Amino acid sequence: EERAAKGQTAPAGALAGVPVALPALTRALKLQEKAGRVGFDWNDPRAVLAKIREEADEIEAELDQADAAKTGAEVGDLLFAAVNLARHLRADPEDLLRQTNLKFERRFAAIEKALAARGKMPKDATLAEMDALWDEAKAAERRGG
How far, in Å, CA of 9 to CA of 16, rounded? Predict the structure, then answer.
């Protein structure tokens, strides 16, 4: 109604009505759902996984070209494909990323704690040292500790 009052028309087509203001992961999910309703979709999550691999290969090719803008665009394609895989698994990508953020924070805190016990801060440690501590934190989580 607001658009009509301003003389604007809403975009037509299968993807119409997905608000631009949504968080990007949520908007990607909504766009993919709408495209899927008209048959533009894979039948198998493994096909989506193959697309993710293809996008990762395209990122690698762009890295070789050292073009940050093109590489960034390929990263966007990878993120879009990852959202699609989440959708095929009936998972909310926002929730999945939120859970992963918490897991990252928990494990990084374990690295900081282990380093502090050695009288160090992360900036004073090597990446190899922190990576080993990351693996320890990951293993401890799997053991339930």
Answer: 11
- pLDDT for 38-68, tens place per residue? 999 999 999 999 999 999 999 999 999 999 9
To 10 degrees, what angle do helices 24-37 and 93-117 make?
Answer: 150
CA distance 1 to 10: 10
Which of 105, 103, 104, 114 has its CA nearest to residue 136? Answer: 114
Spatial distance between the Cα atoms of 34 and 137, rounded to a whole number of angstroms: 40
Query: Residue type for 95, please?
Result: D
Provide mean pLDDT across the span 110-137: 97
> What pTM value is reported for the model?
0.84
d(CA 144, CA 38): 45
